[in-house]
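To: structure desk
From: M.T.
Subject: fold request, one chain
Message: Could you run this one when you get a chance? Sequence is below, nothing fancy, just the single chain.
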Amino acid sequence: MAKIKKRTLRWNASPSTQVVGYKLYWSADGGVSYNSNSVKLGNVTEVVLPEDVKALADVDGPVEIGIAAIDEVGNESDLITLKMPFQFKVPQAPTDLRLEPQKTFHAIAAAETDQEKREDLPKATDPIGVKGPEQINRPGQPTPYPWGKTSPTSAQNR
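Reply: Done. Structure tokens follow.
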């Protein structure tokens, strides 16, 4: 799924008391007017584009936007306009993704890798789950492990 960067379009509310909402107009050809594509927004002073105006997601190229205030009988104010220099269309995805083998190798120091692994394991002398050295290798007793389990072979020999 492609992604389009959202933009918030804001404006100051009309000071007129009879305003009941706003209407957004847009034109990809420039010269936005009352004959351009439009959508009623309700009594808000911001919209998230293109999320709140889905039709803008289909516009290819720069867009000019206009906002008009609408009163209770449908009269519209003059348009305030804004030219937006960004695209609402996403670029095409790259193609032919592949992984190719190389003739050279990346060298890894084995000692460094083994040391990193050893630091993550509990040390044999750690007293985790062991009360004393006399319990380790005691005949007839299972071998204790730091994580609380016993050796599978010593448990079967009981």
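Reply (cont.): The chain has a mean pLDDT of 79. Let me know if you need anything else for the meeting.
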